[in-house]
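Supplementary Methods, section 5.1.

A reviewer requested that the exact input to the structure prediction be made available. We therefore reproduce it here, unchanged from the version used in the analyses.
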Amino acid sequence: MTQTATATRTDRYEELLDAAAECFRTRGFAATSIDTVARHLGATKGRVYHYFPSKMDLFDAVRDRAMDIVFDAIEPGLAARGSTAERMTAMARGHARAMFHHHPYMQVLMDGLQMHRYSTTTDFQREALARHLERRDAYEKRFLEVIEQGLAEGSITIGDSLSITIQTFFSALNGPVFWFRARPDDSPAKLDRLAEDVVRFALRGLGLTALPAPAPHTKETA
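The structure derived from this sequence is encoded token-by-token as follows.
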């Protein structure tokens, strides 16, 4: 296969995932069909079936891509050599920006954590859900490790329950999935400002109020 052909296939695959994410976001899992995604994409069902034999396969692919997005978003902060406060702030910003810049995918990600609402009757579906929950736990563990480091050194302060703190912290960071609605005039800078408000609120629960300045918006966050 030539490089051009590979690029074309990749572009078509990404367009399909984007269309599916938007359909699942607006209609929900139950009301979205292969036909729905094909119509949204302006393509035939055959184009969708070329990559995915079923709606559940397509949903899992979108959900997995969403996990890739958030893992990539927090990696710079996780790998940074700054203070614990700087690392936690950068990780929270990465997560919050993903919530706004990739909102359809993030909605699918949240829905994917409640797959018990859907029919998970096949071995494939159960395995996909187990894989997703395993990645979810690994993702949250990255934040927990930094928080525990901050607690040990005294740069992070919480109440009596670490478990409640973690759940409340993620509820704040994930909040945009439930209340944000994109508008045609939303600019990347505007989305970053919204993300900054969410981050500031979430980090106050960790005793972090003097936050490092945010990095400027880059194409990677769009």
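The radius of gyration is 19 Å. These observations are discussed further in the main text.
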